[in-house]
Amino acid sequence: MANPTRWVTDTGAGHSRWYIERFRRLAAEGADLAGEARLVDAMAAPGSHVLDAGCGPGRVGAVLHQRGHRVVGVDADPELIEAAGQDHPGPTWLTADLAELDLTAAGIGEPFDVAVVAGNVMTFLAPGSETAVLRRIAAHLTPDGFALVGFGTDRGYPLADFDDHLAAAGFVLEQRFSTWDVRPWHDGADFAVSVLRIRG
Fold first, then answer.
1. What CATH number belongs to 6-198?
2. Tens digit of pLDDT for each residue in 66-93?
3. What is the residue extent of each domain of the chain?
C-alpha cells in the first residue's frame, strides 16, 4: 500500500474488530443492512458481475450474491476480509489497495458491470488517492458499466472535490440522491449517493 488510509490513521487500535462485531450484532438483531444492495440490485441486470470496492466485512456483497449476482469484494484491511470470508461464503473476497487495484493480476479478467462503493469508503481513503481509486474502479468496468458511490457529506471530503475527482478519473455524474432509497438530492443533504458512468 503506497500510503496508509484514513481507516488506519484516523481510528484507534481495535477499530476493525469493533466494526466487525458491530455489524454481526446488528445482523443478529434483525437490522436492515441491505439498503445499498437493494439499489444496486434494482439497477443491475440479473446475474451481473459486481465489484464491491471497500467491501469491509462483506454485508453489501453478501446480499448481492444472495440475489444472484457474481460478486468480488475488495478491501485494504485483511481483518475485514477475513471476517467477510467467515460470515459470507460465496463471493470472492480479496485484500488489495483500491488505489493500485489490478484484479487481472489476481486472476479476475472479466470486467465488471457495476461497482458499488458504500460505507463511507471515499472518506477513509488515503489523502490524495481519491482520483486514483476512482480511475482504477473505472478501469475495471465494462464500457457501459456504472458505479454507485455513497458517503456522508459532513465527513471532511467536500462533494465539490469528489465531483472534480470523478471527472478526472473519466466518469460523468449521471444522477445523485440523498439516500440509498433514492430520495431526491438537495444541497443541504448530509449524505450523497452518486451514479457514475464512464465518459463516452
1. 3.40.50.150
2. 999 999 999 999 999 999 999 999 999 9
3. 6-198
